[in-house]
Write a structure and sequence with these properties.
Elements (H helix, E strand, L loop, with lengths): L21 H22 L6 H6 L4 E8 L8 E5 L1 E5 H14 L5 E9 L3 H15 L14 H7 L3 E5 L10 E3 L13 H15 L16 H6 L5 H19 L1
Parallel strand pairs: 1-4, 4-5, 5-6
Antiparallel strand pairs: 1-2, 2-3
Helix pairs in contact: 3-4
C-alpha cells in the first residue's frame, strides 16, 4: 500500500486545503508561492503516479478527498494540504489498469473528506458506480473475501468509505472495516513498538487492517528541516529500520 497515494502531484497554484490550520493559511497568505514550494517538500509522500504504483505492486490506495473553495464546477480533488489531481482522473487511471489485468484486485480507502456536503458524497458514489460497476465487491464479512471468491464473482475493487454514507450503499465497506492505527511519532523505535502491539490487537477485530509504517513530522521537525523536506529529514534515516521490521513480519 501507499500513504497519501495521490500526492505525487501537488498543484502549487491551488489554494490551501480547507483542513489546514490558521497558522498555515496565514503563512501562505504572507509568503505566497514560496510558501507553497516549501510545503510541497513536506506534502508529497509519493513520486510515482497511480499507473506506476500499480506496476510496482501497490494494491492499497490511501485517498483523501476535498472540494475546492469557490469552485463553480463543484469538482472533487485529491488533497493533502494543497490540492492534487481531480478524483475522476485518478479513478480512471486505476480502472484502466484493472481492465487490462482482470485478476488484479485493489483496495480504495476513502478515509478523509474535506469541505464535502451530502450532494458531494452523492456525486462521488455515483462516480464510483459509473466507473467500476460490477467490479466492486459488495460489503460482506471480511473473512469471506479471498482471491478465489473475487475471481469467481469478477470483483476487482473493494471501496472503504469512512462516512455514514457507507451504511446506505451496498458496494461501500464501512470505514471501521479498514482500521489504520497511527503511531504519530518521529522515532523509528517507537514506531516499531507501536506496530508490534497493533499487530497483536488486529487479530481480534475480524476486519481488514493497516499497519502504518510511516513517521510523522512534528512542527519542530518541519521548522528545523524546512528547506530540505520530508525525504531528507525523516524518510531516509528510517528506511533500513522499517525494511527490517517488514521482512521479519
Amino acid at each position: 500500500g501507499s500513504h497519501d497515494s495521490f500526492s505525487f502531484y501537488i498543484d502549487e497554484a491551488s489554494p490551501v486545503g480547507p483542513e489546514q490550520p490558521e497558522t498555515v493559511q496565514n503563512f501562505v497568505s504572507v509568503f505566497g508561492t514560496v510558501a507553497k514550494k516549501l510545503m510541497r517538500k513536506w506534502l508529497a509522500t509519493q513520486t510515482m503516479n497511480f499507473t506506476s504504483q500499480l506496476g510496482a505492486g501497490i494494491r492499497y490506495f490511501d485517498l483523501r478527498i476535498s472540494t475546492k473553495p469557490r469552485d463553480p464546477d463543484n469538482e472533487l480533488y485529491f488533497a493533502h494540504g494543497l490540492f492534487s489531481a481531480k478524483v475522476k482522473e485518478g479513478l480512471e487511471e486505476i480502472n484502466a489498469f484493472l481492465t487490462d489485468h482482470p485478476k488484479e484486485v485493489v483496495f480504495l480507502d476513502f478515509n478523509h473528506f474535506y469541505g464535502m456536503q451530502k450532494y458531494h458524497h452523492e456525486k462521488l458514489v455515483q462516480m464510483l458506480k459509473d466507473m467500476y460497476g460490477n467490479k466492486m465487491c459488495p460489503a460482506i464479512f471480511a473473512h469471506e473475501v479471498s482471491l478465489q471468491y473475487l475471481w469467481e464473482k469478477e470483483h476487482q475493487v473493494l471501496v472503504f468509505y469512512h462516512n455514514p454514507v457507507a451504511l446506505e450503499v451496498p458496494f461501500l465497506w464501512p470505514g471501521q472495516m479498514m482500521p489504520a492505527p497511527w503511531a504519530n511519532t518521529t522515532d523509528p523505535e517507537k514506531l516499531i513498538q507501536f506496530l508490534q502491539a497493533s499487530i497483536t490487537e488486529r487479530r481480534k477485530k475480524g476486519s481488514f487492517f493497516i499497519s502504518q509504517v510511516v513517521l510523522t513530522p512534528k512542527a519542530s521537525t518541519v521548522v528545523k528541516g524546512v528547506a530540505s523536506g520530508l525525504r531528507e529529514t525523516i524518510t531516509e534515516r528510517c528506511v533500513s529500520s522499517m525494511l527490517l521490521w517488514v521482512r521479519v513480519r
